[in-house]
Each structure stands twice: as C-alpha cells, then as structure tokens.
Design goal:
Blueprint lengths: L2 H18 L2 H7 E9 L7 E4 L1 H12 L4 E9 L4 E11 L2 E14 L2 E9 L2 H7 L2
Helix pairs in contact: 1-2, 2-3
C-alpha cells in the first residue's frame, strides 16, 4: 500500500469511529502521547494531552449530537486532514460550521490533531 493510501485509510477509519462512537477504535489510531487542540473558549476548547484525554474530547464533542459530514480526506507528504461539515441542533442553538481537522502522523498513527474552524463564535455559543 502506498503511503498516501495508508493516510487516506487512516482518515476514513478515524471518521468512521467518530461517527459510530467507537472509542476503542479511535484509541487504537493514536500514539500514547497524542494531543488534540481546538480553538475558542468553550467546553471543548484547548489541548487534550495524551491518548486517553483525546478520546474523552471526542466523546464530549459527540455527546452534543453532531453530524460529522465528511467532505474530503486530504493528504500531504506525511500527514492528513479531514474536511468536515459539522451540524447540530440543541433547543434554539444551531451549529453549522466547516472545519479542517489536521492530523500529524508518526509511525502510522495519529500523534497530534489540530482543528481549524470557520465559525469560532458559533462554536463557543454551542459548546457550553
């Protein structure tokens, strides 16, 4: 399997695990020292340090009932990114944002995740 095919498959698996709530599956994709950084000032902002915290962050985000629509899997020479359209409703609140989740890889696993958002104020309002 070519490097870019392995990266593409890793991205597909990460997204599938996230939408299915397969937390053990996500854990298996991460290095032990993995991190996940999100912008904003809300319940899911900041950096989760270590694989267990990254899984807890994924659980927390999913607990808000998001629909994680996968638009594209993008690969660079060594890393990958997911282009997503996330939507959700909670009472009067609506989340509708585009984002890129950039995954840096090490030894075929995800070592760090950084999420780039189109609407940080919208995220802050939703994830309270």
């Amino acid at each position: 399997m070519h490097q870019h095919e392995a990266q593409h498959q890793l991205g597909k698996t990460f997204h599938a695990c996230l939408t299915a709530g397969d937390w053990d599956g996500i854990r298996a994709l991460l290095t032990d020292d993995a991190t996940w950084t999100l912008p904003g000032d809300n319940a899911v902002s900041g950096t989760a340090e270590g694989a267990e915290e990254v899984v807890e962050r994924a659980k927390k985000i999913a607990s808000y009932g998001l629909d994680f629509e996968l638009l594209h899997i993008l690969v660079s020479r060594e890393n990958l990114a997911l282009s997503l359209h996330n939507t959700a409703r909670r009472g009067e609140l609506r989340l509708d944002e585009h984002l890129s989740t950039v995954c840096r890889l090490r030894d075929g696993r995800i070592a760090s995740i950084e999420t780039y958002l189109s609407d940080v104020p919208g995220m802050n309002a939703f994830f309270v």
